[in-house]
Amino acid sequence: MSAVAGPAPGALLGAPLAAALAAATEDRIVYDLAGIDERHDTLRRELPGVEVRFAMKACPLDEVLTALARRGAGADAAGPGEVEQALRAGVPVARIHYGNTVKSDRNIADAHRLGIRTFATDSVQDVAALAVHAPGARVFCRVATAGTGAVWGLSDKFGCSPDDAVRVMEHARDAGLVPAGLSVHVGSQQMTGEAWHAAVEDLGEVLRRLDRRGIRVDHVNLGGGLPALGYRDRRGTPLDPPLDKIFAVIREGTDGLRRIHGGPLDFVIEPGRHLVADHGAIRAHVARLTERRGADGERRHWLYLSCGKFNGLYEMDGLQYRLVFPTHSGGPTVRAVVAGPTCDSDDAYSHEEGLVPVPAALASGDPVWILSSGAYATSYTTVGFNGFAPLPHTWADRAGGDRRR
Questions:
Q1: Strand 96-98 vs strand 299-305: parallel, antiparallel, or unpaired?
Q2: What share of the chain is helix, strand, coil (3-state, %, to 5)?
Q3: Which of the chain's ends, N or C, has fewer CB atoms near its CB within 10 Å?
Q4: pTM of the full structure
Q5: Are 169 and 207 contacting, i.e. CB atoms less than 8 angstroms apart?
Q6: Torsion angle (degrees, nearest 10) of CA 24, 229, 271, 206
């Protein structure tokens, strides 16, 4: 985490969100729905003709799903539970796909019963199960990527090689399924345009090989990976993703894939953190600022917050969130290890890399705002590990303050 003393700079925090955080007297996460809408609309302008399907796992809140559905977005669901939630939130079933390559026979049958007709896959075993439990379904095969350049590479559990992708699609055709598309995922919080370029090259090669076998897909799913803008890395250096370059590479890539395909080809993208991370922030408080000598003989300051890895800040292992201390402006600072409130040693940042300058005068109960924490804060959280409850969520009002839902 990186500390920002005094009022939050406008570049980091929009006025409605800042007003809602200032008005909050108890811990909570506050979302700016209008900001999420604006990020969605900007994405559509940057990638015209690419359908947006929100990766629900990033922020599985009905209000977010409903707001995005009203703007035409669909949903990337990872199981029947998310399918049911998306439907309740008003997402048309035709704009929902089952994007998880890991699924049981029961998962497949339940999703098919709910009306899902498009499924991700990456193995012939999964194809065989789809043929039994979702007969006639459309499938798109996920091609593995290296994940280079991403904060989280996602390169092992999902996806298959280009060679296997051709084999999987042939099996799908032979099993009576519709080999409808291909997909990639370049890694979560992808920081380079080169990763998208490499993924498009692999997709182009698979398209050529499928065409030679008489398999003509109708869409390409570009997956997730679009970055949020307000993070810092584990050492506190601002992550500054070249978003304009990434968009340009994707636009060029879609044009190139259409040329390779030689016919109509639709595109889908699955943003998650890109839409919600920067438009959510946590109002927490200081539990204690301490100083003590450790077993290694080093004297360190520790800043314990009221929320941590298990109730809102699960991704603290891979990045730093910016901290704002609204009741402290100026004054001396100390470099501290930031940690959550639980009796668990994992609930803390790296002692070597994660030291954060914080106001030396911090006292128990002082408010702290944790910026760009809107992604995964409500989904990667326990039901009450160690007795610390999940954060409630509220919504920033355009007129200031917040609205509890």
A1: unpaired
A2: 30, 25, 40
A3: C
A4: 0.93
A5: no
A6: -160
